[in-house]
């Protein structure tokens, strides 16, 4: 076996987005494309000789091929050991768990999360640091800079490694350990939650449905919910991970998880429904004929955290991404703990958690997590809810309504306009920024604009500044409209419009969010000129 050094030329498009580098599979299949990016990671992180890496992905199309390439490149780049999930599988939170548990130098996660998979669909790669979290902006920028000047990469000339049986083998001088992708993660979950109480709940006839959407969490959910907690077989649906997610869009929201939504809103609906995404880090929570918005879910977990053994000492603080509703802020205020507002993407939470400033974090995009790992964690959120339900013995809906009655309701919705021409989407954002001065003080019906800006964040731990993180239009009553361009899409531009209105009046809490937000939506369309600038009247997805 020999190390080959291969000459290459930079691709100019390897800029990591919100969550790593995401492109169509055929882009990744181009000669040297994946190799260039992997070498750029290795060159930027400068691991000491014989360092250990964790490697795994969500099992989508091209996962196996990519794993073999990365293993051979790690061997050629002086790594001492790679821990790889059996079959090349690790959910994103499980990879974070393994990186932390075995104190490795870092890890590489292969996923395009909630985006479809298959020969013509999406693939992705990201680097996570020793804390188990996505590399900070400083590191991802260094990787991008390197990818623009790269001239060569190294790879071991060797046969493929067998990945389907547990155990160790060698690749040149490097050790490859194929590990069970589920066991370390399941053990961590048992250390946080009251499994006995949840088991009692499930034995007592409380019915759950978990939709794994043919994505990575199937085996995790079967092991934890069915085997360890005793949910009846079949409680986990679409449990077999498929390379193309069964042709679906593994995004746990009301649009794409419609199979589950039909069940929880149908006859004989279960008491609790949940789903997770392609790589297992997102979650959707449903009750009997009831949907919990992710922003509310974060606030509720925070308000009920001391019911869970792992958080019985209370929370150090909460963090939420800027577009996430301020429901969590109200709980933080009541608990007298800080609430941080960060840019979108999990990489901004890591520093806060490492510094002990926050315990729970969340995003409006169906992402919730805590300092048990450094990624959002879908199944963890489901177990958190089940633990609360086991203690409070109330339906999901009454828990949410009681929460609203106590704290008020932050009515919330997100409109996504996918696949827009990039110029038109940029034009909308520029137009909004150009309008700030004329918007302030302006009245739109009962709403008066208090303040507008393009969100900028200074990390309280390392002082790094991230600019241009989304346009905020904030009204005097605290309502908000936010416009942001997605950093995870692979085709054209996706414009997200986030709408939030605060409703203190319990008598209005039953209103459908779309009805309660109708006026704000019209204001958003009016001030952004979205329709005329993009030619798009209707959003692609409403969540
Ligand atoms: C989206 C979400 C964001 C999330 C990111 C990664 O990013 O809005 O909240 O952190 O996906 O989620 P964007 O830039 O498209 O809005 V996942 O499940 O990919 O790790
Ligand atoms: Co994801």
Explained architecture:
The protein has 543 residues and is of the alpha/beta class. It has three domains: 2-181, 3-Layer(aba) Sandwich (Alpha-D-Glucose-1,6-Bisphosphate, Chain A, domain 3), CATH 3.40.120.10; 185-407, 3-Layer(aba) Sandwich (Alpha-D-Glucose-1,6-Bisphosphate, Chain A, domain 3); 409-542, TATA-Binding Protein (2-Layer Sandwich). The protein is built from 18 helices and 27 strands. The strands form six sheets. Strands 2-6-5-3-4-9-8 form a seven-stranded mixed β-sheet, with helices on both faces. A seven-stranded antiparallel β-sheet has the order 20-21-24-25-26-19-27. A five-stranded mixed β-sheet has the order 11-10-12-13-14, sandwiched between helices. β17 and β18 (367-370) form a beta hairpin. The mean pLDDT is 95. It binds alpha-D-glucose-1-phosphate-6-vanadate and cobalt (II) ion. Residues 113-114, 277-279, 281-282 line the site of cobalt (II) ion. The site of alpha-D-glucose-1-phosphate-6-vanadate (VG1) has 18 residues, from loops.
Structural descriptors:
3 domains; 18 helices; alpha/beta; 26% strand; Alpha-D-Glucose-1,6-Bisphosphate, Chain A, domain 3; single chain; binds alpha-D-glucose-1-phosphate-6-vanadate; 543 residues; TATA-Binding Protein; 7-stranded mixed beta sheet; binds cobalt (II) ion
């Amino acid at each position: 076996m020999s190390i080959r050094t291969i000459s290459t030329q930079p691709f100019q498009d390897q800029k990591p987005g919100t969550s790593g580098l995401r492109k169509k599979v055929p882009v990744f299949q181009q000669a040297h494309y994946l190799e260039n990016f992997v070498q750029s990671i290795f060159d930027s992180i400068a691991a000491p000789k014989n360092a250990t890496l964790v490697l795994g992905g969500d099992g989508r199309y091209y996962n196996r091929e990519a794993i073999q390439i990365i293993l051979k490149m790690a061997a050629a780049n002086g790594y001492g050991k790679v821990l790889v999930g059996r079959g090349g599988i690790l959910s994103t939170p499980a990879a974070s768990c393994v990186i932390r548990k075995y104190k490795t130098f870092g890890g590489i996660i292969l996923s395009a999360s909630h985006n479809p998979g298959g020969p013509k669909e999406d693939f992705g790669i990201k680097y996570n640091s020793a804390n188990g979290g996505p590399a900070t902006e400083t590191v991802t920028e260094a990787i991008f800079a390197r990818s623009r000047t790269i001239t060569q990469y190294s790879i071991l000339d060797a046969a493929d490694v067998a990945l389907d049986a547990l155990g160790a083998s060698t690749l040149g001088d490097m050790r490859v350990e194929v590990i069970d992708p589920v066991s370390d993660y399941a053990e961590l979950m048992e250390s946080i939650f009251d499994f006995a109480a949840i088991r009692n709940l499930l034995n007592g006839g409380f019915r759950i449905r978990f939709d794994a959407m043919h994505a990575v969490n199937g085996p995790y959910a079967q092991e934890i919910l069915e085997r360890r907690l005793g949910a009846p077989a079949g409680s986990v649906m679409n449990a077999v991970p498929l390379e193309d997610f069964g042709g679906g869009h593994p995004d746990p929201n009301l649009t794409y998880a419609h199979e589950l939504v039909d069940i929880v809103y149908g006859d004989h609906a279960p008491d609790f429904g949940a789903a997770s995404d392609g790589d297992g880090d997102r979650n959707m929570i449903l009750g009997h004929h009831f949907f919990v918005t992710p922003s509310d879910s974060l606030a509720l977990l925070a308000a009920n955290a001391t019911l869970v053994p792992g958080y019985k000492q209370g929370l150090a603080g909460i963090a939420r991404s800027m577009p996430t509703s301020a429901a969590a802020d109200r709980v933080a205020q009541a608990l007298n703990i800080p609430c941080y507002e960060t840019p979108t993407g999990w990489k901004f939470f890591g520093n806060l958690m490492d510094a002990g400033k926050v315990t729970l974090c969340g995003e409006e995009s169906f992402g919730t997590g805590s300092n048990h790992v450094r990624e959002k964690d879908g199944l963890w959120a489901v177990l958190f809810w089940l633990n609360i339900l086991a203690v409070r013995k109330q339906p999901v809906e009454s828990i949410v309504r009681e929460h609203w009655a106590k704290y008020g309701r932050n009515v919330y919705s997100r409109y996504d306009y996918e696949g827009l021409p990039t110029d038109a989407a940029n034009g909308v954002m520029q137009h909004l920024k150009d309008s700030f001065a004329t918007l302030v003080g302006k009245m739109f019906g009962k709403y008066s604009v208090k303040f507008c800006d393009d969100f900028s964040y200074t990390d309280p731990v390392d002082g790094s500044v991230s600019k241009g993180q989304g346009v905020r239009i904030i009204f005097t009553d605290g309502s908000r409209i936010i416009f942001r361009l997605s950093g995870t899409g692979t085709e054209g531009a996706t414009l997200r419009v986030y709408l939030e209105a605060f409703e203190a009046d319990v008598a209005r809490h039953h209103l459908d969010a779309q009805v309660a937000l109708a006026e704000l939506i019209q204001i958003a369309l009016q001030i952004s000129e979205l329709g005329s600038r993009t030619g798009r009247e209707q959003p692609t997805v409403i969540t």
